[in-house]
Design a protein that fits this description.
Elements lengths: L1 E6 L4 E8 L4 E8 L1 H4 L7 H23 L8 E7 L3 H18 L3 E5 H12 L6 E6 L4 E8 L2 E7 L5 H11 L6 H10 L4 H7 L17 H16 L6 H33 L7 E5 L6 H13 L3 E3 L11 H12 L20 H16 L1
Parallel strand pairs: 1-4, 4-5, 6-9, 9-10
Antiparallel strand pairs: 1-2, 2-3, 6-7, 7-8
Helix pairs in contact: 2-3, 4-11, 5-6, 5-8, 6-9, 7-9, 9-10
Bound molecules: 5'-O-[(R)-(carboxyoxy)(hydroxy)phosphoryl]adenosine and zinc ion.
The site of 5'-O-[(R)-(carboxyoxy)(hydroxy)phosphoryl]adenosine has 19 residues, from helix 5 and helix 6.
Length: 367
């Protein structure tokens, strides 16, 4: 089975062809970084136009690379949300047109499910698994029970982790994209002890008996440190930025580890029969090496396997969309050509209920 995947939900235009035997026959990603850099963030209107300008060429390149034509395909999968609605519509319209013209099934893919299933494109990973999704718009801990079946245990109550990286980087004067630039600056930090002493930062919600996240306070603390340096007549020099970036990453690693601990304990208690209980970490921020190492330590302590996609498949791409399309098609989850683009699309429609139930259970067990 060969599926064409199309991704246009944010600032990457992408097309890929993947088989049900886990072969990525082609995988083209066009980053729009240069189109948005001057604005310091993604401009939805520009994103949609750039998708329009380049998607056809990328689909053609994906087919040529795989040495296939449309008639060799078994289906077309396009991200149908959540995301910037104009861009999502561009990708869906292209996907639906190809499906209609060649009489192929169309699969409308939830972008977050595509991130969630990416590790299964690399290797056979059995359900259920514990899932940490960390991207520019989402920060969630979920139980992945099956394709199309997720239970939300925790989510951010304000900013997403990627957003916190991006906004903090901007405050420090690091260019767009913030996340990767902040990671580079942190790697340049020369004296770790002194960086942590210079820049004390909060660990939001640490110790709280649930697995929700909050990152807006951390971003505010970064602003306070930056403002304090500016008012001391001291312009930020490279060492300041490197030290603050390092302190920021350590605070993030501590916070995410703390928030995950309860979910891990509960997951293991609920599924004692699993041979290889696993934590899957996916989404753009999963590319961060310090976070990956911190989660390796954490899962090691709890005897859990840590599974992360290769860095190249952490950020937005169409191979993950094609793979999610394959998983859904194999289960008969096909969409009609009148399915709509969805700016919001929770993986767990009963998310609030499940989050509350998780918190209640943890609190009862703590008594
Ligand atoms: O999954 P993704 O590519 O797009 C969304 O679905 O949102 O995630 C993008 C986010 C951005 O906030 C970006 O700054 C962040 O992932 N990111 C990183 C790194 N690479 C990308 N954050 C920290 N460290 C990185 N190496
Ligand atoms: Zn994404």
């Amino acid at each position: 089975m060969k599926i064409l995947g199309i991704e246009t939900s944010c600032d990457e235009t992408a097309a890929a062809i993947v088989t049900d035997k886990r072969a990525i026959l082609s995988n083209h990603v066009l980053s729009q970084l240069k189109d948005h850099r001057a604005f310091g963030g993604v401009v939805p209107e520009i994103a949609a136009r750039v998708h329009m300008d380049h998607l056809d060429t990328l689909i053609r390149a994906a087919l040529d690379d795989a040495q296939l034509t449309f008639t060799d395909l078994d289906g077309v999968a396009a991200t149908s949300g959540p995301g910037l609605i104009g861009g999502v519509m561009v990708g869906m319209m292209a996907g639906k047109a190809i499906a209609a013209a060649h009489d192929l099934p169309f699969i409308g893919v939830n972008h977050m499910e595509a991130h969630a299933l990416t590790p299964r494109l690399m290797e056979e990973i059995a359900f259920p698994y514990l899932l940490l999704l960390v991207s520019g718009g989402h920060t969630q801990i979920l139980l992945a029970k099956d394709v199309n079946s997720y239970e939300l245990w925790g989510t951010t109550i304000d900013d997403a982790l990627g957003e916190c990286f991006d906004k903090s980087a901007k405050l420090m004067g690091l260019g767009y994209p913030g996340g990767p630039n902040l990671e580079k600056a942190a790697l340049e930090c020369q004296n770790h002890e002194s960086a942590l002493a210079r820049f004390p930062l909060p660990r939001p919600l640490k110790g709280r008996k649930n697995c929700d996240f909050s990152f807006s306070g951390l971003k505010t603390a970064i602003r306070t440190h930056v403002d304090a340096m500016a008012s001391d007549q001291h312009t930020l020099v490279r060492d300041d930025v490197n030290d603050l970036s390092y302190a920021f990453e350590i605070a993030i690693c501590d916070t995410v580890s703390d928030r995950l601990k309860r979910a891990i304990v509960y997951f293991k208690r609920r599924f004692p029969e699993l041979d290889a209980p696993s934590l899957v970490v996916s989404g753009g921020v999963a590319a961060n090496l310090r976070l990956r190492n911190a989660l390796k330590d954490l899962t090691g302590r709890y005897d859990l396997a840590l599974i992360t996609p290769p860095v190249s498949l952490c950020g937005d791409n169409a191979a993950m969309v094609a793979w999610a399309g394959i998983e859904r098609l194999q289960r008969g989850l096909i969409d009609s050509l009148d399915c709509a683009a969805r700016p919001r699309w929770p993986l767990d429609p009963d998310g609030d209920k499940h989050r509350r139930a998780f918190e209640q259970r943890v609190n009862n067990e703590g008594k």
